[in-house]
Amino acid sequence: MSDPLIQIRGLHKYFGRHRVLRGIDLDIPAGQTLILLGPNGAGKTTLLRILSTLSRPTQGQVQVAGVNTSANPEGIRQYLGMVSHAPLLYDDLSAAENLEFYARLYGLQDPGHRVQELLKQVELYHRRKDLVRTFSRGMTQRLAIARALLHNPPILLLDEPDTGLDPQAAELMTDLLRDIGGRERTIVMTTHHLDRGFALADQVAILAGGKLVLNIPASQISAPELRPLYDRLVNQQRRKA
Question: 18-28 and 6-15 as β-strands: parallel, antiparallel, unpaired?
Fold first, then answer.
């Protein structure tokens, strides 16, 4: 069996005296979609920030493609696309202008074709000339995903991209993520929507109280079983805290 694309060992993160992550061990194979579940304050966003090299672990290590992220964060970023709570888009630029701006930051040569390709993929080509401030939440999130995919990274990190979406927008988001995943891309996504996340998952992990309390292939559990298991594990961890 080949080494996992992402390997996390003994990961701890403190903010002052407050320990947010408590000894996380996690392997994520290439081409898999990992759905990371957990209540508010569980440490999901902190873990994604460490994976994205935006934050450093207090203890332990993360390796991406065999490279320690703390030792070479700049080199690792070429492998990563990140969509956080803030979409990192300019409201007074059009959809196409936003992508063209970021394409230049990524050093893409003649990015016009790539920008058009991504706008079509996220179903925003017909709105390419419209200012982002006129977009709905769902459209903004889809454009943020296009931004993260400009340099065609093999890893996409998504921090609750479905928050605040109406059912139709959420369905479009799920279809998009299913389309851009697969063997060519590894996805790590946090979400509070268990059913929606499970529909995408190859691997399901649950964080509670900074600890990884579940990490299994999605094939080992059914959607109806996930909610009661999630509730039981989270409540158990709360009682231990």
Answer: antiparallel
Round to whole Å and give the CA distance between 115 and 150: 7
**What Rg value do the Cα atoms of the chain yield, rounded?**
18
**The pLDDT of residue 176 is above 60:** yes
Dump pLDDT digits (tens) for 92-121.
999 999 999 999 998 898 899 999 999 999
pTM over 0.85: yes
Rounded CA-CA distance 19/35 in Å is 23
Nearest to residue 223, comparing CAs of 198, 204, 203? 198
* Residues 149, 114: Cα–Cα separation, whole Å: 10
Cα 20 to Cα 17, 24, 50, distances in angstroms:
9, 11, 12
Is-contact 208 175, C-beta < 8 A? no
- Closest alpha carbon to 137 in 184, 172, 179, 102: 172
CB-CB contact of 33 with 200 (8 Å): yes
114 belongs to a structural domain: yes
β-strand partners of 27 = 7
* Burial of 209 per CB tally in 10 Å (0-12, 13-18, 19+): buried
Q: Identify whether 1 is part of a domain.
A: no
Residue 216 lies in a domain: yes
Q: Which domain holds residue 213?
A: 6-240
